[in-house]
Amino acid sequence: MQTDISVRHLYKTYGDGFQALKDINLEIYRGEIFALLGPNGAGKTTLISIICGIVNLSDGEVEAAGFDIKRQYRQARQAIGLVPQELNTDSFETVWNAVSFSRGLFGKAPNPDHIEKILKALSLWDKRNNRIMSLSGGMKRRVMIAKALSHEPQILFLDEPTAGVDVELRRDMWEMVRQLRESGVTIILTTHYIEEAEEMADRIGVIRQGEIILVEEKDLLMSKLGKKELRLQLQHTLEKLPGELTLEPIELSEDGHELIYTFDSQQEQAGVARLLRTLGDLGIEYRDIQTRESSLEDIFVGLVHE
Ligand SMILES: Nc1ncnc2c1ncn2[C@@H]1O[C@H](COP(=O)(O)OP(=O)(O)OP(=O)(O)O)[C@@H](O)[C@H]1O
Ligand SMILES: [Mg+2]
Question: What are the chain's domains?
Fold first, then answer.
């Protein structure tokens, strides 16, 4: 796998002495969608801003597309598109001009066909001659994305891309991000919508108080840390959990109608079969069974509060 971003022993202390990042080590591979999750103030925007050369690092090394972000700033920056968290689009410019101009800033020759393609993909084509200040918030966010894509970057950062965007547009944006990935673009996104990471990401990194506490393939993460819950609706209420069951990770609901069994999704078969056999032996009958898998949200909340 080719590495598109490499972060080694990165530290950041802001001017006021606040240490925002501590010994960050991270590799992002070409063509993947990497979701960076973490609570407010964890350091996500700081990390992205450093890789994009907007904020200076205090110590460590960062390469983007094979270029050192300090010594080869221009080449590194040219390979990157950034959609920042804060919208700064109070512009008298038209959508078309702003996006075309942004391409020029990176020293790329004009390419109206490319600009047309991204504006159409972002449903901004009808608004191309409107001033940006006259657009809605969601449209402004799409203009930010169009600007970030204007110079055909290899790497795209999306810092909270869908904050304040309606559900339909969010789906459209997910679709667009997937298409970009298919065209070979490496995508790093931060989000507070965990379903977004669950839906999109190939790998997930969790950052907490300036430290990366976990990096894992999403599917592996969900099977490793995921829990399943089995609920059995009982034919007859139980007053208390029979002694035979007290060693299991099982609970009796307050009204005595339900048994709730929680297990690791990896060792499911063994435990469930044993439980059902034990219930059979005890003559406990049930009317219905439901299972539920933990979501990335459950896992994330568990990690961050650990
Ligand atoms: N210019 C600055 N000077 C001092 N401290 C800063 C500066 N910018 C950010 N910080 C602090 O660094 C920490 C990380 O901020 P950052 O914006 O990277 O968090 P974040 O993970 O992006 O949070 P959010 O989810 O709210 O966007 C916070 O405690 C923040 O107050
Ligand atoms: Mg942020």
Answer: 3-222 (3.40.50.300), 227-305 (3.30.70)
